[in-house]
Amino acid sequence: MRNSIHQRKRVSLIGMHLDRASPVALPQQIAAQMRDGILRGTLPAGTQFLGSREIARELGCSRMVVLSAWEILYAEGYLESMPRGGVSVATVHRNAAVPPPVPVDTSHIAGPISQRWQSLIGFTYDTNWESDFSPGAPDISTFPFGEWARLLRQTSQQPDKHECLDLSAAGLSELRREIAGFLGAVRGLVCMPEQIVVTSGTSSALDLCSRMILDHGDEVWVEEPGFVEAQWSLTAAGAKLVPVPVDGKGLCVAEGIRRAPHAKLIVVTPSHQYPLGISMGLERRLELLDWANRNDVWIIEDDYNSEFRHQDSMIASLKSLDREQRVIYLGTFSKIMMPSLRLGYIVAPERFVEIFTRGRARIDVHSSGVGQRALAEFMRQGHLLRHLRRMRKIYAERQQALMTAITSYLPNDLSVAPCATGLHLVALFSDRLKARMTDTKAARLLKAAGLHVQPLSQNHLEIPIYSGLVLGYGRLKAEDAPRLIAKMAKILGAAKK
Ligand SMILES: Cc1ncc(COP(=O)(O)O)c(C=O)c1O
Fold it and tell me: What number of CA atoms fall less than 13 Å from residue 434's CA on the CB side?
């Protein structure tokens, strides 16, 4: 790398070697070589780089490749943005630095791996389920494990012989009936058990839908910022992802139409946008449905977390407005029970039920029969509703405690709005904080002090629109919130620009 020791002059990466035959994606290759230079000291703190366009020209790759490499290094805290544009090397303290992701060595399996999968398994996403602030983790300490264990034992000791051999790929009929009843009671969604296909959670449902609906290169609207794991399923199916911005009213439908008028599929989280937490306004919902109906576009509604409404009013699902059977509704037991259960469901438009059932039979046949039977009984005996009622109260208190702590300790740096449902809040950076640091830098500093939070920019596909922190409160004890947020304020306040 030329000029690497000159700090004032903008440095080029002209000597960098990119191996296009390698199974490691180009952004990962660039990031790995720059990280190596930073850690070895050939790219010292303060080194400024040429603009992404110039570097892309030098390396003979697209600008997006360079920007993606920089995003990786931002997230890890190796780079920071400069006040008048461009990037420079941050001060990296060896033990505070996020350990570089171990480059995934796919060389021994490179032959049979598709290019899509090379980039998917090489992708790193910083998350920590054990963190006090994990955005997706529910509290399992109050889960009625005794009842659950009893039902699992009972199901295993007295199995239905027919079920042991031949279970429908659509799922156990008793479970489908319980889910339909549960959706009516908890989400006000009227559906027939025959519309339900049991899955191994939302990820499995997204995988099934993506594989079965999309052809290679089909365009799909995804929310920007959005749910990265949904993007993985779509990418694995060969889709072309089209990021569509989200504003205060939800997905910007007009912008989606402008960016990809021939999209085949739209993936949305209308009741509780992930990660911003916004509920899509009625006008936008009708606009979306109307456009999708007129253009023969399918909509996947990921309704994760909506069971935890903290206020009396229920945010209706998009599916409940779906007169023309356009919406494929996805639900999961990962949050109301636990993620390792791996059970969820699709409420499918009629024409898709048979299609998805046959498709599932071609992949992994169905989800565990024992788990499905125990869950059906758990729901039938009222344990799930009781647990949900208890957790709603606990999560509402935790959300309130988190908001109060943020407004007390960080009133000038973070702004949070209450969210009617869910397990996380988004704390947006004030202009004052934005001028001092990026959210990735903030997350890195906090992580080094033991507070693992997610930077909002990590959920963007393009240059981030929003800067902030995604703060889960599912596992956060209300009494711990003031202490942890005071610690956060101290770290962010002490950080040098
Ligand atoms: C937006 C969103 N949808 C769905 C899920 C649940 O996924 P799964 O059912 O595969 O556990 C999550 C989990 O974190 C999520 O954040």
Answer: 13
Distance CA 183, CA 331 (A): 9
In this prediction, residue 44 carries a pLDDT of: 85
* Among the listed residues 167, 173, 215, 219, the one whose alpha carbon sits nearest the alpha carbon of residue 195: 173
Residue pLDDT, tens place only, 5-32: 334 578 888 878 888 776 567 887 888 8
Distance 344 CA to ligand 1 centre (A): 10
> Cβ(140)–Cβ(461) under 8 Å?
no
Q: What is the pLDDT of residues 394-413, one digit of tens each?
A: 999 999 999 999 999 999 99
Question: So what's the pLDDT on residue 34?
Answer: 87
What's the 219 CA to ligand 1 centre distance in angstroms? Answer: 22
Q: Where are the alpha helices (DSSP H) in 76-201?
A: 115-122, 145-157, 161-165, 173-187
Sign of CA dihedral 308, 309, 314, 316: negative
pLDDT score, position 108: 58
Phi first, then psi, for residue 316 (nearest 5°) are -65, 150
Q: What is the largest CA-CA distance in the chain?
A: 75
Distance CA 179, CA 331 (A): 10
Give the pLDDT confidence score for residue 310 in this predicted structure.
78
Atom of ligand 1 nearest to the CA of 204: 10
CA–CA distance, 146 with 309 (Å, rounded to integer): 26
Residue spans of the chain under pLDDT 70: 1-8, 22-24, 75-76, 92-111, 123-125, 312-313, 496-497
Structural domains of the chain ordered from first start: 26-121 (1.10.10.10), 145-382 (3.40.640.10), 386-494 (3.90.1150.10)
- How many other β-carbons are positioned within 10 Å of the β-carbon of residue 169? 18
| Residue 236, phi then psi, degrees to nearest 5 | -60, -30
Report residues whose beta carbon is within 6 angstroms of any ligand 1 atom. 136, 201-203, 227, 269, 274, 302, 304, 332, 334, 339, 344
Cα dihedral 444, 448, 453, 454 sign: positive
Question: Torsion-angle region of residue 445: left (phi > 0), alpha (psi -120 to 50) or beta?
Answer: alpha
**Closest to 386 (Cα-Cα) out of 336, 340, 452:** 336
